[in-house]
Amino acid sequence: MKKVVLLGALALAACNKEPEVKIENATPAQVASKVRAARGAETKLQPGQWQVVSSMDLLDVQGVPAETAARMKMAMTRTSSNLQCVSKEQADNPNAGLFAGQNNSRCKYESFEMTGGKIAAKMRCPGENGAEMLMTMDGSFDPKSYQVTADMNMNMGASGQKMRMTMKSTGTRVGECPAGQAKTG
């Protein structure tokens, strides 16, 4: 799940000119295509080394024993910080995985808007046996930084279990990628 926020957040800086992207009822691939088309030939996401800080600020689990919920909260509610190299190729060509964090062809954006340095999105991913995830994402970006908050509500289907998570991610470009990392991202 952190991958969804991290990759979605890196997508924030991928577009920074008018007209921007506004699309409804679209797949992650369609969103990626619209972002690429809106950007033209310019790269607005700055390739290089990025400092990424992610935190899970809320984890609410229902339908599991209290002990299990407490263990999940202890394991998942923490802040992580890492360096990530974004290559020129990655910055030039955001793909559908960048916007969904996975290759889930059943995920659809109910809405996706990037305009004026802001992003707002709502994505729904149906699962097996009535399971479903709904994610809303709001944030701001420029070519060298971003901040995003994602709220995920998951219904585990027939089991009756539910989970809500709120995650925050910030990123700042801190310099060039170390030699040898730029091609691997």
Outline the fold blueprint.
Layout: H1 2-12, E1 21-26, H2 28-39, E2 48-62, H3 66-76, E3 79-86, H4 88-92, H5 96-100, E4 108-115, E5 118-126, E6 132-142, E7 145-155, E8 162-175
Antiparallel strand pairs: 1-4, 2-3, 2-8, 4-5, 5-6, 6-7, 7-8
Characterize the structure shown:
It contains five helices and eight strands; from the N terminus they run H-E-H-E-H-E-H-H-E-E-E-E-E. With 185 residues, it is an alpha+beta fold. The protein has one domain (2-175). The protein is globular and about 45 Å long. The chain starts with a helix and ends in a 10-residue tail after the last strand. Mean pLDDT is 79; it is low at 1-7 and 12-17.
| Major β-sheet strand ordering | 1-4-5-6-7-8-2-3
How many extended strands?
8
The main sheet comes to: 8 strands, antiparallel
What is the percent of helical residues? 10-25%
State the low-pLDDT regions, or none.
1-7, 12-17
Distance between the termini: 20 Å
The tally of structural domains comes to 1
Please state the average pLDDT score. 79
How would you spell out the order of helices and strands? HEHEHEHHEEEEE
SS summary, helix count: 5
What is the SS-derived class? alpha+beta
Round the Cα radius of gyration to an integer and report it: 17 Å
Strand residues, percent: 35-45%
Principal-axis shape equals: globular
Write a short abstract of this structure.
The chain has 185 residues and is an alpha+beta fold. The protein has one domain. The chain contains five helices and eight strands, in the order αβαβαβααβββββ.
